[in-house]
Design goal:
The structure holds two protein chains of two kinds.
Chain A (H helix, E strand, L loop, with lengths): L3 H23 L8 H19 L1 H7 L2 H25 L24 H25 L3
Helix pairs in contact in A: 1-2, 2-3, 2-5, 4-5
Chain B lengths: L1 H21 L14 H14 L4 H9 L1 H21 L3 H13 L1
Classes of the chains: A mainly alpha, B mainly alpha.
Chain lengths: ~140, ~100
């Protein structure tokens, strides 16, 4: 699509959408939302950028090498957190008894494993959405 | 003969399934088995256990974190399937370009 209005509006709106997505992910343990919702918001902003600027520009913003590594890294991060539970707490994906920092109730840094796992899930969902979109719209 | 046998078997299966539906608890009833002590435990103990204000987040990523790990594995499997079927244009381009010029 080669439209000046769409391109400029996208350029203005995209940072706010991504900031909102990061807000939802980081507040996943305090307010409604979480990794899946915030990751979907960030992935939708990247899809909007690709729709406005075309696949080549979108691929420059989110290269396939990077998204596939984030994609695999999200799930490895989750499993690694579970392994910390095995080492220090005795069970897979243990939270409080594994010695994660619990913080104060209602603070950003609280909840131990929950906030860390939410960040991993958010990155994974965002990279999954953009990789699926880029893979399906490309013309061979 | 074979067709009538199939019809009889399917009719019996339909009767059994419809009968089990009529025995199910009413939607939203207070006596439903889903409102058991697990929900009460989550409401009472989620904050002392996990120190997270959002009880849903504490259920998803603490009490049932293994289920969430399975969900992320589903996402990973979907991406593996799509990328293996629709192999990347940008990976091929780097290999093909020298051939086109030469």
């Amino acid at each position: 699509m080669d439209d000046l209005i769409v391109k400029n509006i996208t350029k203005i709106v995209t940072p706010f959408i991504q900031l909102y997505g990061i807000f939802i992910i980081l507040h996943g343990h305090i307010s409604p939302g979480g990794g899946f919702a915030g990751g979907a918001v960030i992935g939708a902003s990247l899809i909007l950028y690709t729709l406005a600027y075309g696949l080549d520009e979108g691929h420059k913003l989110a290269p396939h090498n990077l998204t596939s590594k984030v994609e695999s890294g999200g799930i490895l991060w989750f499993v690694l957190l579970g392994m910390v539970g095995i080492l220090f707490g005795g069970r897979f994906l243990d939270n409080q008894s594994a010695g994660f920092y619990m913080g104060g109730f209602g603070n950003i840094i609280s909840g131990g494993l929950i906030s860390l796992a939410t960040i991993g899930i958010g990155l994974k969902v965002a990279s999954t959405m953009i990789t699926l979109f880029h893979s399906t719209i490309q013309e061979d | 003969m074979k067709k009538s046998f199939v019809i009889v078997v399917l009719a019996g299966l339909l009767f059994i399934l419809l009968g089990s539906i009529s025995e199910m608890p009413a939607l939203g009833g207070i006596e439903n088995p889903s409102y058991n002590e697990v929900a009460v435990y989550y409401i009472n103990n989620a904050v002392p256990d996990t120190n997270a204000a959002n009880i849903i987040a504490s259920i998803i990523t603490d009490y049932r974190a293994f289920d969430t790990l399975g969900e992320t594995t589903v996402l990973f499997t979907s991406i593996v399937a799509v990328v293996s079927v629709l192999s990347g244009k940008f990976d091929k381009k780097e290999r093909k370009e020298p051939e086109n010029h030469g």
